[in-house]
Amino acid sequence: MAHHYSFPGRLVGATAMVLGPLLLLTATVLRLPFHHFFPQQLTAVAEHPALMASAHTAALAGTVLLVPAVLVLAHDIGRLRPVWATWAAGLVLVGVTERIFHAGVDQAAHGLVRRHGAEFATDLVARSYGDLHLFSFLSFTILLGWPVLAFAAHRTGALGGGRFAVVRAVALGATSLLPLGVLKGTEIMSVVAVIGLCVALVPGGVRLVRGAPRPTRRSVLMLLATVPVLGALGVVSTLG
């Protein structure tokens, strides 16, 4: 029997819509005590390694979770406006991929701090900060994607209706204010952008969870059996 299914599915999408923005908010708060520019960020890595590692991990995990969250939103938009859904989600996902690329550069810079000190890492980053790469030409997607997605979501009611529909759409568009580039800390625009993302996506994720059918006994048992296996694979992955 054929099933109507769209990736990533209701449960995964709802989880991503809730956890993604909240993890980004956590990272934003953790970085709040330090100046947002990269020399101060690298100094913070040297002086507060555990805190900055936690902030970096939360930011990376939250950014990755934006991928399924945006796919769910694009699916809802596409029911009425498939062209808008394609362009909006495409722009946002390229921008999200660029942020994941930036996070990889951040990780490498953190490793330089641990092994050679903040001064060495700062000098190397300063000398290579303007190097061109593929995403140098695609940064406009970070700025343009979220407003386009917000407009499409509002036009199709994908963010929900009611008196706060416009507020949620504006909040989603404000995500474009999140500063782009490597080794970016928290500034006022970061706080506005991430709070906007939470306002826009978290209620939708909660709504999806509430509307989801109750899990079957078989699916619960499969989940319980899968989680330890995934954990073991995660540990093995660190050995390579």
Concise summary:
The chain has 240 residues and is mainly α.
User: Number of domains in the coordinates?
Assistant: 1
Shape summary: globular
Mean pLDDT: 93
- Individual helix count: 9
Derived from helix and strand composition plus strand pairing, the structural class reads: mainly alpha
Number of strands: 0
- Regions with little confidence, pLDDT below 50 for 5+ residues: none
The end-to-end span amounts to 41 Å
State the helicity in percent bands.
over 70%
Strand content: under 5%
Taking all Cα atoms into account, the compactness measure Rg is 19 Å
Along the chain, the helix and strand elements come as: HHHHHHHHH
Main sheet: strands, sense, barrel: none
Structural write-up:
Keywords: Membrane, Transmembrane, Transmembrane helix. The chain crosses the membrane at residues 12-30, 50-73, 132-153, 165-182, 188-208, 220-239. The longest helix has 35 residues, at 82-116. 36% of the residues are buried. Helix 2 (38-47) runs antiparallel to helix 5, helix 3 (49-78) crosses helix 6 and helix 6 (140-156) packs antiparallel against helix 7 (165-173). The protein is 74% helix and 0% strand. The termini are far apart. It has one domain (10-215). It is globular, with a radius of gyration of 19 Å. The protein contains nine helices and no strands. It has helices spanning 10-30, 38-47, 49-78, 82-116, 118-128, 140-156, 165-173, 188-211, 217-237. With 240 residues, the protein is mostly helical.
